[in-house]
Amino acid sequence: MLTKPNVARDKVLVSVRGLKTYYSIRGSFGQRLLGREAGFVKAVDDVSFDLRKGEVLGLVGESGSGKTTLGRTLLGLVPATAGSVRFEGREIIRMPEHELRALRRDMQIVFQDPHASLNPAMTIEDSVGHPLRIHKIAKGRELRLRVAEALETVGLAPPEQFLEKYPSDLSGGQKQRAVIARAIILNPVLLVADEPVSMLDMSVRAKILELMLELKRELDLTYLYITHDLATAKFFCDRIAILYLGRIVEIGPSKAIYADPKHPYTKALLRAIPEPDPLRSVPRDLPRGEVPDAARPPLGCSFHPRCSAAFEVCGFESRDLRELLENRWAHMAGDEYDAEQALIEEIASLDAGASRVRLRAGKGASGSDVQRFLERVRSEDSEEPFWRGVRRMSADGENVEIEWHEPIEPRLLDVGPVQVECHLYDEDALAEAESRRVGASLKTTLDEQSPPNVSSD
Amino acid sequence: MTSSPVVSVRDLRVYYGTLRGTVRAVDRVSLDIEAGQVLGVVGESGCGKSTLGRGILGLLPEGAVSDGEVLYEGRNLVGTSPRELRRLRGPDLGLIFQEPMTRLNPLMRIEEHFSETLTQHEPNLDDRQVRRRSLETLGRMGIPPTRFRQYPHEFSGGMRQRIMIALALVLRPKLLIADEPTSSLDVIVEAQILSMLADLQENFGTALLLITHNLGIVAEACDRVAVMYAGQIVEEGATRDVFSEPAHPYTRELLRSTISLATTELHSIPGAPPNLIDPPAGCRFHPRCPNAMHVCATKNPVEQGLDGGRRVLCWLHGPADDLSEGALSPLEREEIQVADEA
Amino acid sequence: MAVPARAESAPAPRRKRLSGLRRAFSPVTEARGMTRTMLWLGAGITIAFVLIALLASVIAPYDFDTFQANGQRFAQLEPPSSDHLMGTNVQSTDVFSRIVWGTRTELKVVFVSLLLSITIGVPLGLFSGYFGGKLDRVLVLVMDALLVFPFLLLAIVIAFLLADKVGQGILTAAIAITVVYIPLYFRVVRNHTISIREEPFVEAARALGARPLTIIRKYVFFNVVQNVPPLATLNAADAILTLAALGFLGYGIQPTDGAEWGYDVNRAVSDAASGIWWTGLFPGFAIVLLVVGLTLLGEGLSETINPVLRKRPKVDVDMAPPSGVEAQTR
Predict the structure, then answer these.
(1) ipTM surpassing 0.90
(2) What are the respective helix, strand and coil percentages of chain B, to the nearest 5?
(3) Is C298 exposed, middle or buried (CB count within 10 Å of its CB: 0-12, 13-18, 19+)?
């Protein structure tokens, strides 16, 4: 296993506080004609963490989690909307470009796609040596010596075999080695590695990871390892932050997270990794659906629509009802579906994303028909977490009014060695849910609700 | 398994002409795909696994030549006219690609995609039947009927891939070839789709040839696995057997170098896959093989059958007769430079 | 760390830069079939015209405005003969000589106008595409406005405006044509720059601390520049036509400044009615031939260089087993 040096462990290299990176999005043609902003995507939404000197911190998440944007914002490659990033005590956010350029000697990045991260029109010598030229450190013969040295360090030996080559002459692994050589030639302190091995073949991944561990020891580097792959992260990282829709949902020492994942999303991710050893593979129970549209995130906890442990205060809302009905209809025969679908005038009216909605009945149906239908759906699958979130349903002429419990915004809480952003570990949220449940059962006589299955760990 | 194969591939070769020479992307591959079975073809990039999938369907790019036999319902698909192959593709042989967005027409509703596909191959269906068949297939893939009239861009990546799969399945093909169907998707969605693919047999009775580089996916979804190296199948057998006790050194090394949650130390295969223009003599894996013997460098290995319908292309498993003295002694390996790797 | 001694022999950087350019155009040597034919035929015609232009004083028997030799005036409108290979025109000048000298004029104007439009259009496109924002919007608007104009009308207006200040010489004609073509280079270069800008290697350069100018020069330019030669060649063909049209309409090169094919064709219009074919046919044919040559070259170049149009070269496939490997016993 790795030996991790304990020197200067606690010195914070990068300190991130309340970082937000929003992208404005282009709307439809009509909106653009009218010059209206269509809104924004919260790619990174209020993220705070410390990166200590000499450690490997993994940022793990699926596409759309904001992990790549976070890495880029940290390096000042993408402008932040708000918050602070301090690198060795210096604030990077809103630092003037020329100061930032000088600072880039100390922080480097390795990209996912080795085939696209080298300029196809430059030789390996030019590419790897360009940082030296940019920062006016070496040129000519000395540059060549330094490049040769860097190439040797990353295992491209003998270097003269590679100096004159173009990226297209190299294999994927060799290119990634050259990219790493370019990143370390300035002796940086921090290396952001954005999925450095995910485009490489299995038999090459281990070599590149090994190289990176070696470099870390030799050059005293600190890594921010961005990945979607929990398996390599487990091996590679000292600490791990799990991201979901721009927020850190769980962060802590890798050992603790892998041994005992706390957040339902972390659990789901770990369960989803395909296991090559047939003797170890376990039956899956996977969360439904996909990562939601970041431009219109769910209310409350972003993960609640996919979470099997979600309860009253997690943020259930109208869109969840649409999904529930659609999932039901997907597995239904045509006639049955036609009958049920006809009860509701316009399913798209649920797209508002509100905690309270008036749903109009279809032609020839009344509000109470719809309510009876929804009650039936509930009774057929009362374990479904969605129904915990429903506070009240009442028919009113041609409409049925549905109200969900007000969401509580989740917050990052200390749970043992890790921090988790989940109501299951929030005493206040649990208590609030309990009191609402009592209130609801006083009002509703229709059925008993099952308590949320709060895991005991 | 007692059922007869849906497709039998015998001695299939697919060669490409390039300016630097002929690339032997698929070199004498034989395999059987049984009805309702999920067969995984696994290997590193450039091993010829994608070309094999396309070669079976006759979907080869310009400049490629194939030879050998792909037997489907008693006829050899190699040499069948492109028109006839087009007629078979869809109702008999389906294909799913890696990138779903590029395969759906952005200007056509999902409904139109289905009705076009169905009416083209089954002109006798009326509108009601088309709708019923489409909705049923989409439902099995978890796409609700409420979204039948939407456009491709209104769906997420995972849903698009499900739609693509449904579009292939709506014609009830006997064999579906899926080339890295999930590699552009997130882990959880990937797992969702894989569990659906693994259930194809129950729902549709379709055999599946799953091409992937991910050994985990094979272990989870496939009944049998064929491991490809440098254009050849080096080992084939039931997934459980092959992965728990790999017979070919390449399979073993590939499994060891895969990083999974159980990985405690990194392992890699020295060297790099050979170029397929001028592959090494004898066994193509011998320059990288820790178990290489003298015979491996000179003579092509002969396929050997093992228990449980397994076969392996490696001298470790024989035949030992008519080999000269010392042929089975270990081969001193040439030093492999780190730089040559990858 | 030990550094191998051989790495110390640093090669001249100039050679490297050239090899970079050579790589960008290496597909040209790999062209096959129809593309290859087009490429070489176009190149042959174009080179022939360039040679004619360079050696005009050797090839042409007379000057472009010579109407007499040895004190004797040439006959007007004389049909082709051994004295005058392509006859003479209404001004008694030798048609063949005018065509040879005209080649020089045409190529001079085209060369100057291409040089100008490339040196203006390419950098504008690079900056506009790389920096984006307001600069980009304004430039796109201006260029689009120029593109919307009927290009001949635009050239006429420019030639007309410049006629007073610069005179109706080669420069005026060249500038008139330049203005028409700047937007084309701008568009092509800008669009390519925008796609290259999103490439990870450009972001990598930013992450290395490179200045925008360095990035444009070292990372963007070389990946965009390969699109220019095909476009320039096609434009050259178009420019010949524009120049000829200007000449035909009387806004081109003044007859006293040099021979010009379009002007000659114009003068020949009235001849054609009286059965005099040589004054019009030969300059017209010269225009067509040069335009065809340049077009073939341009199309050939863009088919070989543009990755979208480029076809995988067809190579015979050797189905025999690889040499040195015994046949598989199956």
Answers:
(1) no
(2) 35, 25, 40
(3) buried
